[in-house]
Amino acid sequence: MHGEKGIRLVQVDEGNWGVFDRLVQLYLHEISAHLRVQNTDAATLVWEDRPGFPPISGAWLIYVKDLPAGFAIMEKRHCPVVTDFFIMNNYRQLGLGRGAAEVLLANFPGPWKAASVAGSEVARSFWKKVIGGFVGSNFRITADAVLDLDYFEFTIKPPDKSGGLGS
Q1: Which CATH number goes with the domain that contains 109?
Q2: Given this model, what pLDDT does residue 145 score?
Q3: Following DSSP, what letter does each residue of 106-161 receive, concatenated?
């Protein structure tokens, strides 16, 4: 999947798992301020509350000009859910995260959810901007007190292929 600014999303597989795993370590370090992440004797981090994290299916590496810049994890439940989204610090505030999220969402029209850690104003602001670009204010936010997450619920309409008025 390709977008503007040299953004490319590549599905994670065995061939690029090492890159994904290194990015996940950066992500876990960052979220350890909010969630329970444990250090192992191999100096790697694991997410206590999510055994089996990270999954290999539904994970996408985000590349910018052929360099890894982050990842997105999308789980298929009753609708696609962006459960985790990460952009490296040196790629933030450049519109690349927003561009990558837009590429991902646009490729799967229909109902969606995007999760953010409850109380994370940075994540909340990010998803409001991205989702608002697709659906304006037509989304709702629900809280999951058990997982300490906020879910943004919205629907992406398929692209209009009619060719415009009068077609």
Answers
A1: 3.40.630.30
A2: 81
A3: HTS-EEEEEEEETT-HHHHHHHHHHHHHHHTT--EEEEETTTTEEEEEEEEPPP--
The contacts of residue 112 (CB under 8 Å, 6+ apart) are: 79, 80, 81, 82, 105, 153, 154, 155, 156
Q: Is residue 164 part of a domain?
A: no
Q: Whose CA is closest to 105, among 95, 97, 117? A: 97
14: pLDDT strictly greater than 90: no
Q: What is the per-residue pLDDT across 98-140, written as a single tens digit (0 to 9) for each?
A: 999 998 888 888 898 998 887 778 888 899 998 988 888 899 9
Q: How many domains does the chain have?
A: 1
